Amino acid sequence: MRLRTKEDFVDLIDSEIVWRKKELSYLKGNIKANSPYFKTHLRSGVVLLYAHWEGFVKNACELYLTYIKFQRLTYNELSENLIALSLKQNISAFEQTNKSTIH
Predict the structure, then answer these.
(1) Verdict on whether the full-model pTM lies above 0.70
(2) Res 57: pLDDT
(3) Blockwise average pLDDT, block size 10, the chain, 103 residues
(4) 67 & 78 share domain
(5) Using CA atoms, how far apart are residues 103 and 91, in angstroms rounded to an integer?
(6) Is the same domain home to 59 and 15?
(7) What angle do CA 91, 97, 99 make, to 5 degrees?
(8) How many CA atoms lie within 13 A of 102 on its CB side?
Protein backbone atom coordinates (compact mmCIF):
# COMPACT_ATOMS: atom_id res chain seq x y z
CA MET A 1 0.00 0.00 0.00
CA ARG A 2 1.43 3.34 -1.02
CA LEU A 3 0.55 6.08 1.44
CA ARG A 4 3.50 8.42 1.34
CA THR A 5 1.66 11.65 0.51
CA LYS A 6 -1.53 13.35 1.57
CA GLU A 7 -2.87 12.86 -1.98
CA ASP A 8 -2.30 9.08 -1.71
CA PHE A 9 -4.25 9.06 1.53
CA VAL A 10 -7.13 11.09 0.08
CA ASP A 11 -7.24 8.91 -3.05
CA LEU A 12 -7.50 5.73 -0.98
CA ILE A 13 -10.23 7.23 1.22
CA ASP A 14 -12.12 8.33 -1.91
CA SER A 15 -11.90 4.90 -3.50
CA GLU A 16 -13.00 3.32 -0.22
CA ILE A 17 -16.15 5.43 -0.07
CA VAL A 18 -16.97 5.26 -3.81
CA TRP A 19 -17.57 1.52 -3.97
CA ARG A 20 -19.64 1.67 -0.78
CA LYS A 21 -21.83 4.44 -2.20
CA LYS A 22 -22.27 2.50 -5.46
CA GLU A 23 -23.40 -0.61 -3.62
CA LEU A 24 -25.84 1.31 -1.43
CA SER A 25 -27.20 3.21 -4.44
CA TYR A 26 -27.71 -0.05 -6.31
CA LEU A 27 -29.61 -1.51 -3.37
CA LYS A 28 -31.71 1.64 -2.99
CA GLY A 29 -32.56 1.61 -6.69
CA ASN A 30 -33.78 -1.98 -6.47
CA ILE A 31 -36.17 -1.41 -3.57
CA LYS A 32 -39.65 -1.11 -5.02
CA ALA A 33 -42.28 0.66 -2.91
CA ASN A 34 -45.09 -1.61 -4.12
CA SER A 35 -43.14 -4.82 -3.49
CA PRO A 36 -44.53 -7.20 -0.86
CA TYR A 37 -40.99 -7.34 0.55
CA PHE A 38 -40.57 -3.56 0.76
CA LYS A 39 -40.14 -3.45 4.55
CA THR A 40 -37.75 -6.41 4.49
CA HIS A 41 -35.62 -4.80 1.80
CA LEU A 42 -35.67 -1.53 3.69
CA ARG A 43 -34.52 -3.19 6.93
CA SER A 44 -31.77 -5.06 5.10
CA GLY A 45 -30.69 -1.76 3.57
CA VAL A 46 -30.37 -0.22 7.02
CA VAL A 47 -28.21 -3.15 8.14
CA LEU A 48 -26.02 -2.84 5.04
CA LEU A 49 -25.75 0.91 5.55
CA TYR A 50 -24.54 0.38 9.12
CA ALA A 51 -22.08 -2.31 7.99
CA HIS A 52 -20.67 0.01 5.35
CA TRP A 53 -20.38 2.85 7.85
CA GLU A 54 -18.58 0.65 10.37
CA GLY A 55 -16.28 -0.78 7.68
CA PHE A 56 -15.50 2.66 6.31
CA VAL A 57 -14.61 4.08 9.71
CA LYS A 58 -12.39 1.08 10.50
CA ASN A 59 -10.58 1.21 7.15
CA ALA A 60 -10.26 5.00 7.18
CA CYS A 61 -8.70 4.88 10.65
CA GLU A 62 -6.26 2.18 9.58
CA LEU A 63 -5.34 4.19 6.48
CA TYR A 64 -4.82 7.29 8.62
CA LEU A 65 -2.56 5.46 11.06
CA THR A 66 -0.58 3.99 8.15
CA TYR A 67 -0.25 7.46 6.65
CA ILE A 68 0.98 8.82 10.00
CA LYS A 69 3.47 5.94 10.23
CA PHE A 70 4.93 6.75 6.80
CA GLN A 71 5.46 10.36 7.89
CA ARG A 72 8.10 9.12 10.35
CA LEU A 73 7.16 11.70 12.95
CA THR A 74 8.83 11.85 16.34
CA TYR A 75 6.84 11.50 19.55
CA ASN A 76 7.17 15.26 20.05
CA GLU A 77 5.29 15.82 16.79
CA LEU A 78 2.38 13.50 17.67
CA SER A 79 -0.69 14.29 19.72
CA GLU A 80 -1.03 12.56 23.11
CA ASN A 81 -3.67 10.10 21.91
CA LEU A 82 -1.42 8.91 19.05
CA ILE A 83 1.52 8.53 21.43
CA ALA A 84 -0.65 6.41 23.73
CA LEU A 85 -1.77 4.30 20.79
CA SER A 86 1.81 3.75 19.66
CA LEU A 87 2.82 2.65 23.16
CA LYS A 88 -0.15 0.34 23.63
CA GLN A 89 1.76 -2.81 22.68
CA ASN A 90 4.57 -2.02 25.13
CA ILE A 91 2.09 -1.26 27.90
CA SER A 92 0.25 -4.53 27.25
CA ALA A 93 3.50 -6.51 27.42
CA PHE A 94 4.41 -4.72 30.64
CA GLU A 95 1.01 -5.46 32.14
CA GLN A 96 0.92 -9.17 31.21
CA THR A 97 4.36 -10.26 32.38
CA ASN A 98 6.23 -10.68 35.62
CA LYS A 99 9.66 -10.47 33.95
CA SER A 100 11.86 -7.93 35.62
CA THR A 101 13.67 -7.19 32.34
CA ILE A 102 10.47 -5.78 30.82
CA HIS A 103 9.62 -3.86 34.00
Answers:
(1) yes
(2) 97
(3) 86 95 92 89 94 96 92 91 86 78 65
(4) no
(5) 10
(6) yes
(7) 110
(8) 11
